[in-house]
User: Fold this.
Amino acid sequence: MAYSRPLSIVLTCVLVIGVAGCSRSAPPASDTTQAGSTPAQPAATSSPAALPHACTLLTVKDAEEVLGPGAQVTRGSESTCALKNARSDSEIHVTIEELDRNTWDGGEMMMRMDKEAKKVTGIGDGGYSYMGGNIVFAKGRAQVTVIVSTYNGPTPKLEAAQIIAAKVAGAL
Assistant:
């Protein structure tokens, strides 16, 4: 047959790739310690509770407060909630992510880079605003970011971000 050789090559490749992908083994437990050191602790069996999604902390009434009647609260991604005005393209995005306390600086780096960045008090820990009104703050294990760059409602951007940030901080 004219196709037997190419077909056998394809089948061989598929078989080799399949076997190679399934033949991995875990490294021996002894590889995790060095002479004179304490053995590594086993992983904890229970993980901390997942952070809430921002959309579970905000209501349509919250969105309408800054975007006007008919505003919507829409899940944008795994960690982002979009507050949208139904009659325009005005939006506010809220993201809640796990906070890394080892790298959290409360906006010090941002304030060195953006001369308009400034501290925001009364909302979580180390809150700051940057780039015309976006707000970032920490609360507990969460880092919250409120982005107002595509917001064009009647309330000034920084004030709109503060309203939404306060609602999220109060619900965390």
In short: Residues 54-171 form a domain with the Protein Transport Mog1p; Chain A fold (CATH 3.40.1000). Residues 1-46 have pLDDT under 50 and may be disordered. The radius of gyration is 25 Å. The first helix runs from residue 4 to 22.
